[in-house]
Design goal:
Chain lengths: 318, 384
């Protein structure tokens, strides 16, 4: 196994991790405010298509990235309108958002399917640091979105745990009536959280269509929005654990093609002769194992989930 | 007060979204909408006249995929130009569920279609049923194996022939003698392509190894691009592939490596990396079926055409393929076209060194269609 192969494994780990981390971080914000949004797949897909299209028009990956986040926020806003303002069932509204988002993206993007990308993000290559053997490529020669995701993760952690606004947001996720009684607007907090979450998902989709697989075709998000939803549970609703979970998941995704091309023996078996179908279930085996460990550790403690998650709030029905 | 303001804001945002969506509607150039308006449908119950063919195409993907469905749509256009028949199509029809059936029934009942071309394997059983229910309509199925005696046939192409030729070009251009192959699913069609490609590469470069990575996808650009990247990191400097996306080519170009695409000439996507591509050319077959139906001479068959028929071909070679290799490729292409030689001609050994085709023998179609092994020189698992 060469240095390039091992470095490549971790480079891909970080990139796949970033992809699901961005979307999962957005979902975390919404869920900490008590709103379950199963529309992540739809929001990511809308972000992917709009990012790609704005990239075609402007030639600027940053304009495309920001536009994708804005579209994600708008689409998230629909979920906020239906489930927060109007108090409809969050599960149904979220699923509708996924199905509708996929269809809408297919419609909006039907004339740019398979078109050559005009622009994409390039690796940053931080001067001096990117040339460090082994670690340079993994940590200091990634596309800028990776560093944006790290900053966003830190920002979300800081806002949630160190600011009054974050306190209010977490409070509304635990008990909306109490928060209302204190004088915060439940509707504003929750809608804001859902829209910010949508922006993160849209940005994740744009990372896909502007870097990981530049271009647009229907179905290109390929279920990663659902992985993001699962990651929030996996990360026990904490940004730090979420980041670890995303990296772990990214690692298994990156491992799958690479194990097939590594020329190594393990217990007398050529690794590249192992059935890739078996390798393919690795992420899911890992998920089950980690979930078992988490639930074991939390067996004497209350669930880490926000207490009001999934419960709509109408003041009159208190 | 704040709540009301927010409510208003949200309503405005929602309205903006709807407007933005509406604006995307203008410039739909070539593609007719699925529920096409071209076909006059005066008396839907009456079958169309014998000489008037309305051919309807059911596609599994979008016509803009630059790959599989794009190639079929090019074929549809060519057949329409050549025969003057009316053609209709609908994109993105899932293989599972009732959609396929509903689409076909609509084509027949409302648009008077009398030829149905369906272009994905999973439509097969539904087609068989429909062929029984509508005996006056001709059903032609790409990549399947079922048929009947009157109105249901299948068709495919010997893609392994141009794959072999593309392998010859790839073998000549690899410097590390390692070629990466991003493979879709471990089924005979894909294995046949990998083996033919490998045999071709070995012809111009006896030391070459072909490393296979299975993605278990037909279309997931992120996975396919990353699989190509993994093969490149492991030492490959040429990438071949069997999926419908261009992502492996972009990965190859980024790494300064080379690329053999598939389905269509994808040189525009990664011009520096592109070597050549085995491509589909469905048009002549579609035109032939339409002509036969118009003339009343149609009889279903199991068609597996090769380079002799032009249904498969090799895209133009990159400029840096050495002249002697290009000449040899032309020579072999001529042999494949006139039928004097075929790809799976012995002696051929499998991955473990067992002889699978003896010296001087040529593999029959049956074993070729059921191929389940890798030839010597392929690195990877053939069973997936």
């Amino acid at each position: 196994m060469s240095e390039a192969a091992i470095v490549g494994l971790f480079v891909a780990t970080v990139q796949f991790g970033t992809l699901v981390f961005l979307a999962a971080l957005g979902e975390l914000i919404a869920e900490r405010a008590g709103v379950l949004n199963l529309g992540v797949e739809g929001m990511m897909t809308m972000g992917a298509v709009s990012g790609f299209m704005v990239g075609l028009e402007t030639g600027s990956p940053w304009a495309a990235f920001i536009a994708a986040a804005a579209v994600g926020a708008l689409v998230g806003g629909l979920h906020a309108l239906v489930s927060v303002v109007l108090g409809a069932d969050q599960v149904v509204s979220g699923l509708a958002l996924t199905i509708g988002g996929l269809g809408l993206a297919a419609y909006v993007g039907r004339n740019v399917v398979g078109e050559r990308p005009e622009t994409k993000f390039t690796d940053l290559g931080i001067v001096g640091l990117a040339d460090i053997p082994w670690f340079g490529d993994i940590f200091f020669n990634q596309p800028p979105v990776v560093y944006v995701a790290v900053l966003l993760g830190l920002a979300v952690w800081f806002v949630l745990t160190r600011t009054r606004w974050g306190l209010a947001l977490r409070a509304v996720g635990e008990s909306a009536p109490t928060t209302d009684a204190v004088g915060h607007s439940v509707m504003a907090l929750r809608s804001g959280a859902v829209m910010v979450g949508g922006a993160f998902a849209g940005a994740g989709g744009a990372f896909l269509s502007l870097y990981m697989a530049p271009g647009w075709t229907e179905g290109m998000v390929a279920g990663r929005g659902w992985i993001a939803v699962a990651l929030v549970i996996f990360g026990a609703w904490r940004p730090g654990r979420l980041a670890l979970g995303a990296l772990l998941f990214g690692f298994t995704l990156a491992l799958q093609p690479r194990l097939q091309s590594f020329d190594i023996e393990f217990l007398g078996v050529d690794v590249n002769r192992i059935s890739p179908a078996l390798l393919g279930i690795l992420p899911f085996v890992l998920t089950v194992v980690v979930l078992v460990i988490i639930s074991w550790r939390f067996r004497h403690r209350p669930s880490p989930a926000p207490a009001a998650l999934g419960l709509p709030y109408r003041r009159e029905e208190r | 007060m704040a709540k009301k303001l927010l409510l208003k804001l949200l309503v405005v945002l929602a309205a903006l979204t709807l407007i933005a969506v509406g604006c995307g509607n203008d410039d739909d150039d070539a593609a007719p909408e699925p529920e096409a308006t071209q076909a006059p449908a005066p008396e839907p119950t009456e079958a169309p006249m014998d000489d008037e063919v309305i051919a309807a195409f059911v596609f599994v993907g979008p016509v803009g995929d630059a790959g599989w469905t794009w190639a079929h749509d090019q074929g549809r256009r060519l057949a329409e130009d050549r025969t003057g028949a009316t053609t209709l199509f609908v994109e993105n029809v899932p293989e599972d569920g009732p959609d396929f059936r509903n689409v076909v029934v609509d084509f027949i009942e409302d648009e008077n279609a009398n030829v149905i071309f369906a272009t994905s394997f999973g439509y097969m059983d539904a087609m068989e049923e429909l062929a029984g229910e509508y005996p006056d309509v001709v059903f032609e199925h790409a990549s399947g194996y079922k048929m009947n005696d009157t109105n249901f046939g299948n068709f495919f192409g010997r893609m392994y022939q141009p794959r072999y030729l593309s392998g010859m070009a790839a073998g000549a251009l690899t410097e590390t003698n390692e070629i990466g192959y991003v493979a879709a699913f471990p089924i005979p069609e894909v294995l046949r392509g990998i083996n033919a490609f490998t045999l071709g590469a070995q012809r111009t470069n006896p030391d070459v190894e072909v490393h296979v990575t299975w993605t278990f996808t037909w279309f997931d650009p992120a996975v396919e691009g990353d699989s190509a990247a993994a093969l490149l990191e492991a030492g490959a400097d040429v990438i071949a592939m069997h999926q419908d996306s261009t992502a492996p080519g972009l990965a190859a170009q980024d790494a300064g490596a080379r690329w053999v695409s598939y389905n269509s000439d994808m040189s525009a996507f990664a011009p520096d990396a592109f070597i050549t591509a085995p491509v589909w050319n469905w048009g002549p077959y579609y035109a032939r079926i339409i002509d036969a139906v118009a003339a009343g001479t149609y009889a279903p068959g199991a068609y597996w055409g090769g380079m002799d028929d032009g249904i498969v071909a090799l895209a133009p070679l990159a400029a840096d393929v050495p002249a002697d290799v290009a000449a040899e490729i032309d020579e072999v292409a001529a042999q494949l076209t006139d039928g004097s030689w075929d790809v799976f001609t012995g002696e051929i050994r499998d991955q473990d060194g067992n002889v699978v085709v003896a010296e001087g023998e040529t593999m029959e179609d049956g074993p070729m269609l059921g191929m389940e092994f890798f030839v010597e020189g392929v690195v990877g698992s053939a069973t997936g």
